[in-house]
Amino acid sequence: MSEINKELVEKFTTMATAVNATVVELPSREDAYKYVVDLTVSKDPCEMLADEPGTEKGPLGPNRVPTRVQRILSVPQLNDEEFASVEAYAKEKGNILCIREGVRKYGAGLDVGVINAVAGVAASGTCLCPNTDEDVRLSSMLCEISVLLLDKSTIRPDLPSIAGLMRECIGQGPEPSFNALITGPSRTADIECVGAVGVHGPLAMHIILLEA
User: Fold this and answer.
1) Do the beta carbons of residue 12 and residue 84 sit within 8 Å?
2) Model's pTM, two decimal places?
3) What 3 state SS string does the chain have?
4) Are 110 and 1 spatial neighbours (Cβ–Cβ below 8 Å)?
């Protein structure tokens, strides 16, 4: 197990917070899963940006479109035991549907998506998230709140220091890997140089730093 560099963790937290990410430190993945369930319950209802036949709809949201009554929590990278634990806790907390496949079916409105990051970059508060699975990519892109799980020991000083890891990720397995470098929630200033958050992706990002 790699050692945790406290200075890199502090710098990563500072830089990630500067780009509007919420950074929390938790001791275990079990605590992280409870955190995301509680987050799903506490957030405002997800706005449905497309029609989804058969879905129970609630009052109109801030953008004057219907909200989804049932909360959707996507956790595509959990194993059977982890998923069962999250699902059980979600049932205790409220009307939450936990999914780990078929994410595209819920693209009209996904509350929280949770994926793993394999490395962090302290200089910019960036997370490296490689994958070959569509459900993983959609979970990080179509949700209102994106949650990244990052082990503290994987945080590196700068982008050049993870170049070798990125090359390894690209070359793993028979299928090409999509290396996503994620820094804060989605944002743009294309229109009259006015900054807007959530235009091309999540409205908010939470990064959970784990001790492992």
Assistant:
1) no
2) 0.92
3) CCCCCHHHHHHHHHHHHHCCEEEEEECCHHHHHHHHHHHHHHCCCCECCCCCCCCCEEEECCCCCEEECCEEEECCCCCHHHHHHHHHHHHHHCCEEEECCCHHHHCCCEEEEEEECCEEECCCCEEEEEECCHHHHHHHHCEEEEEEEEEHHHEECCHHHHHHHHHHHHHCCCCCCEEEEECCCCEECCCCCCCEECCCCCCEEEEEEECC
4) no
Place of tokens 């496949």: 101
Q: How far is residue 127's CA from residue 150's CA, in Å, rounded to a whole number?
A: 8
pLDDT digits (tens, 9 = 90+) for 133-152: 999 999 999 999 999 999 99
